[in-house]
Amino acid sequence: MPATPQPPNPNLRTDQNRQQNPQQPNRLGFGWGWLIAFGVLLVVNIIITNVLSSNNGSTITIPYTEFKQQVTTGNVESITVTGDQIQGTTRVEITAPGGGTRSKQFQTVVPSFANPTTAGQNGAGDNLEALLEQYKVQVTAQEPSSNTLLTILLSFGPTILLIGGFVLLSRYAARASGGAGILGFGKSTARVISEGDRPSTTFADVAGIDDAKEELTEVVDFLREPQKYTRLGGTVPKGVLLVGAPGTGKTLLARAVAGEAKVPFLSISASEFVEAIVGIGAARVRDLFKQARSLAPSIVFIDELDAVGRSRASQVRIGGHDEQEQTLNQILTEMDGFDSREGVIVIAATNRADVLDEALLRPGRFDRRVYVSAPDRAGRAAILRVHVRGVKLDTDVDLDAIAQQTTGLVGADLRNLVNEAALLAASRNHESVSQADFGDALEKVQLGTERHIAQSADDRERIAYHEAGHALLGLLIPGSDPVRRVSIVPRGKSLGATIQAPVDDRSNYPEDYLRARITSALGGRAAEQIVYGVVTTGAESDLQQVTSIAYQMVTRFGMSDKVGPINFGDTDGQNPLSAQRTYSDATAQLVDSEVRRIIDECIENGKRLLTEHRGQLDDLVAALLVEDTLDQARILEVTGLAVQPTRPGVTV
């Protein structure tokens, strides 16, 4: 299937403070030594008491009934009575219950009804004293020992330990949270990055997003030289909102600001504001901005702002304010409550700007919105050069060619690509990372890990025709994205893959290009119909892609004469198939018929082209069955075709 290119505060304790005052003791409330000594003494006392109060290892425990039987047989020589416990010696060794250990030393417990000091006086019990006298057993009585320390420890020890642990936890939490009290409730958890521990990331490490970097460079410059910007009466924005898809480098930009700005940098994730106790989030917001003002000039960075900044109008509430709304209200209040001349700038990042509350986006709060978009070809090459700094590359590696094949990938994807290529080269015992390693790594990143599954010869042939159909149409249709690679090696969820990537990034898509995308995506199904007369389930993802493109052509781009130049699609560019319908049933039927017409025309065109070039289709299949994977040069060699030139009207 073809891949789709798509601040000083007395409450703050930082490492810097500790370096400036090395004599400051690093300890909690009361000394650790006292706590450790107390614990050790408690454990030692309990162990010694247990050892001294225990019997030697040769003593066996027997039932009281067995004890009486041994007395009546004359086998008991002497006993020592301590409370209700009896320890004694027999003339002949006896066996412990259940067999095994034999010993002359035994112990047992006297039931309350047979207490030797009371039995026989009130008619109760079994008159153990008379029984012992009858069989001439030597009896020694002892007072029960009273270990006052042990009693106190066993009675109050757990409570003392619990209270001590609670106090210790409270003091530790207060220290860790800057004196906020137990568990730091109401204290901001923001990480304060000061002069001593500023991250090493700078704008030199940010590539491919030059527009966003330029706007943030202006913010850093203002914090360094505010008079430069205020001398004419202007003010710097209070807030800067970074908007972009995941992985485009929003957090990296914030880290670069921390590395470039010579001011304190407070970093926190929006989700850290919200706790189980109502009001904690608002308290933490207040404390965060209090810290920022005391450290001014400073920068506050809030990551994933949508965690607390979602629109209040779109949420269902059952009475009162919830924690998220209170936190959002406090953020709005705090941003209104400080002047930009104080030198506090708030930077926030989100990939869901569409769900943010309108009050956050109005002037005076997040005045400036910086869109961090996916990099273009030159940007991807620049990003690759940053990530390969520590990688040993072979002489054949062409980063520009790799950038050309990675349309749609963002900074995080490219970093992962470089890492996968390095790991792959290491697993192959290469001395350096080659272009082939990057090619295989790109397949792994885009399609998944190679799967080793058993396939019959017929299955491999059918898959080869399917992928060859994609590849051949990609070569035959003018304006199509060039075919970079075709493979019948199972990866991820697919049994084969055809990778197409444009020569340059496209920002405007003409109708014939979209039709070429549809036709090429249907090439696998068309080839199966021509060769076998039946189709398989292998075209499922192709059909999903085709349906999405066709519906967008009709409902968003006005590429249907019957429906006309009307936009019925979603406004945020998401999948039109999941968007709420905004048109009538009659229009829906017309849309469906036009989508069907476009797809039918494309697949018929694909069948015609494959039929006319059946020989080249068969040659491509034969090569695939032998080599499994063909690169662009090999594909052109096998088919004898050349890369189609860009058609007039196709914007590149």
Brief synopsis:
The protein has 652 residues and is an alpha/beta fold.
Instruction: Report the sheet-strand fraction.
Output: 5-15%
The CATH homologous superfamily of the largest domain is termed: P-loop containing nucleotide triphosphate hydrolases
* Spatial shape: extended
Number of structural units classed as domains: 4
Explain this structure to me?
Strand 3 (85-95) and strand 4 (102-109) form a beta hairpin. Helix 13 (377-387) packs across helix 15 (411-427) and helix 19 (523-532) crosses helix 21. The strands form three sheets. This protein has a six-stranded mixed sheet, sandwiched between helices. It has a five-stranded mixed sheet with strand order 1-4-3-2-5, covered by helices on one side. The chain has a three-stranded antiparallel sheet with strand order 13-12-14. The chain folds into four domains: 55-142, Signal recognition particle alu RNA binding heterodimer, srp9/1 (2-Layer Sandwich); 185-371, P-loop containing nucleotide triphosphate hydrolases (Rossmann fold); 379-447, Orthogonal Bundle (Helicase, Ruva Protein, domain 3), CATH 1.10.8.60; 457-639, Methane Monooxygenase Hydroxylase, Chain G, domain 1 (Up-down Bundle), CATH 1.20.58. It has helices at 15-20, 32-53, 64-72, 128-134, 148-176, 210-224, 226-230, 250-260, 280-294, 306-309, 323-337, 358-361, 377-387, 399-404, 411-427, 435-447, 457-476, 511-521, 523-532, 540-555, 585-612, 614-627, 632-639; strands at 60-61, 76-82, 85-95, 102-109, 138-142, 191-193, 239-243, 265-269, 298-303, 344-350, 368-371, 483-487, 497-500, 629-631. It is extended and about 120 Å long. It has 23 helices and 14 strands. The protein starts with 14 loop residues before the first helix and ends in a 13-residue tail after the last helix. It has 652 residues and is of the alpha/beta class. Helices cover 45% and strands 12% of the residues.
